[in-house]
Amino acid sequence: MDQLYSSPKFQSYFENSPQSLILKADPPYFTILAVSNQFLAISGTVREEILHKPLFEVFPDNEHDPSGRQRAMDTWMEVIQTKKRVDIPVYQYEIRDPQTGELETFYWSNANEPVLDEDGNVAYIINTTKNVTEEVRLRQLAEKANMSLEEHQQRINSLLMKAPVGMAFLSRNNYVIQYANEAACAIWNKGRPEQVIGISIFDLLPELRQSDMQDMYDRVMETCQSFTLTEYPVDLERDGTLQTSYFDLYYSPLTDLKNEVTGIMVMANDVSHTLEARKTLRDAEQRLRLAVEAANQGIFDLNLITGELVHNERLNRLLGYPDGLTLVHTDVRKNMHDEDRVKVERAFDDALKTGRFNYEARVNWTDGEQHWIKTLGKVFFDAQGQPVRMLGSTMDITEQVEYECRLDEINSALQQEISKFEIITEFIPQIIWSANTNGSIDYVNKGWAYYTGLPMEAAYASTWQEVVHPDDFDRVQQAWKNSMLSGESYQIEYRLRKHDSEYNWHLERGKPLLDEDGKPVKWFGATMNINDHVELQKQKDNFLAIASHELKTPVTSIKAYAQVLEMMLRNAGDEQKASMVTKMGIQVNRLTTLIADLLDVTKIHTGKMQFNDAFFDFNEMLDEVIDDLQRTTLKHQLVKEYRFNGQIYGDRDRISQVVINLLTNAIKYSPDADRIIVATHTNDNDLELSVQDFGIGISADKKDHVFEQFYRVSGSKQHTFPGLGLGLYISSEIIRREGGRIWVNSEEGEGSVFYFSLPLNKPVA
Ligand code: ADP
Known about the structure:
Elements: H1 2-6, H2 8-15, E1 21-24, E2 32-35, H3 37-43, H4 47-50, H5 55-58, H6 67-82, E3 86-96, E4 103-116, E5 122-131, H7 133-162, E6 166-171, E7 177-180, H8 182-188, H9 193-196, H10 201-204, H11 213-223, E8 227-238, E9 241-255, E10 261-270, H12 272-294, E11 298-303, E12 309-311, H13 313-318, H14 338-354, E13 356-364, E14 370-381, E15 387-396, H15 398-427, E16 431-436, E17 441-444, H16 446-452, H17 456-460, H18 463-466, H19 470-486, E18 490-497, E19 503-514, E20 520-529, H20 531-571, H21 575-606, E21 614-617, H22 618-630, E22 637-642, E23 647-650, H23 652-668, E24 675-683, E25 686-692, H24 700-703, H25 727-737, E26 741-747, E27 751-759
Parallel strand pairs: 22-24
Antiparallel strand pairs: 1-2, 1-5, 3-4, 4-5, 6-7, 6-10, 8-9, 9-10, 11-12, 11-15, 13-14, 14-15, 16-17, 16-20, 18-19, 19-20, 21-23, 24-25, 25-27, 26-27
Helix pairs in contact: 20-21, 21-25, 22-23, 23-25
Bound molecules: adenosine-5'-diphosphate.
């Protein structure tokens, strides 16, 4: 057979064969025995170069990917084994370009038919190869195109679905929703796209039936024309109420291939927010304009490159020009005060560097007056840092400047006053101070340093407290606290340490400064050295104690002698002399009372007043006192109004001393009255006694002082009554010591009511 295939006759026959190769079944060579012109053409080879050569030597495929070669080998081996025709529809095989020598990828299809020898074994393979590269490429392209078309479709779909604009397709009949994207569903607020598709838009949103929506849809259907509406109000139900939203709407007919209208496409963009924002912006603009107008401000916008100036009308007047004139940049400084013009130029140059424009200057206005103006501006720079624009405003600050001038004048006057005050306070012997609400001193005069010998700074620190005598400290603190709570002024005597470490008595008066709510915001006070006074007081007390003590014995003797003398004269029938001695006795009694009072005062001062408390019948004591005193006055009727009956625990003599004092005062200070009422009653846990007279009374501003020692109300009426001003002081001390309270209600010219109370359940000592 080899000879047959090799014969020139067969060779020339095969040249024109539609088949491609005759291969010898001699694996692994598959020697080429014959080749057709068709194959030479598609493989780009020359007969002489390939004939009688092993196929894989001539067509080695790509050495890096010899899959085509393997495929061919496998196929032919299959043909040899099965002795049947085996086809490969498409496979890839690389062959070298005869021109460039480069490997090129081709796609082939081939059929392989066995030719058997006499023994029935495969001896040859007739191969028919077709170059299908073109078809494969086309098919690949088509597949690719198909794929990207699908992708494209999908992308468009999701784009539409996620588009920020609501989009829906409505059918021709009944406007049933056929497609809706998410934005459309968000506007409708009735569920997701798959939930609303298939429902008529008017069933989904019944509120639309009242609108002109249907007319619009109908119009699109009839005219087959699309149309647009902007910022169109649509009422939609939201949370049970109809609410108006604004939409940009676009309606367009949907047509089929025959150009017949099948439905309508609706696009809706909710512009409510934009409208609102625009409205807010408009409002803000308006407000700004109003504010600028109200503030009477001049506004300007200066182009720093062209020098062009845009400004409002108000700027004209501020810069000294008539209204209506358009100003250029060089006009701005023309009417300024010469001195200020230089300053403004400098401010302008600075602004071009710093970005901030700020000056105050005087301008001569058209009305002939000079006004102060203030300009504030901001400079804008381009990307290269060049100043390109300046925006700013100018206002009239004449009043403010004048006010500041006035304030300066007032301040300097005040400063002078303060200096004067400081000179005065420096020389006064008192310590003058002010303190804030937490008690720390914020001003003190030099008196403090002189007295304490400490540096001034120490007064501002807590050292102030250290110089208060430890025994007085709590009392001082308490006075402070009380005053702080009540907002009332206080007065206290305490000892302060001197520079020589001695303690001197001081009298301190503090007065709070109150705010509108009556709360103290600051304290002012003066602390005065009263040591000498206190010393004198002590000496006086000593003197009084000795003097009254020494007087007591002779006066008692005089009284005894007087009584004896009176008796003797009466017995001798000398009534005239006897009554003179009686009068002497009365004067001696007054003297005794005076001496007793003085002794009491010294006892109070030295803390030596003794109390012998015991139970006693209160009314019995009252009767005794009242009956006794009734005998001394013919004019006054002493009226008893007892509403208490019982025992009181206290010093009977001391308490009766108080009643006597109140009654004698009542008699003394009501010379024209004929009645004095002594009343008692109980009140909670107290017994209350009142002595009411209808005499001269006491004025409101003086009545609280009557319990002070040596205090006597001064006045034209009072000075006719004798007295030392000690009785009420002693009484108040007795009542205080007995655990009670003493006070007075009085009206000038009407009379007074003196009260005291005593505890009913006083603990028995
Ligand atoms: P005196 O010895 O001056 O009466 P008191 O201490 O008893 O001293 O009283 C003090 C002052 O109170 C008196 O000087 C008087 O001005 C006034 N006073 C006391 N009682 C009365 C009263 N019943 N009516 C008017 N003024 C009174």
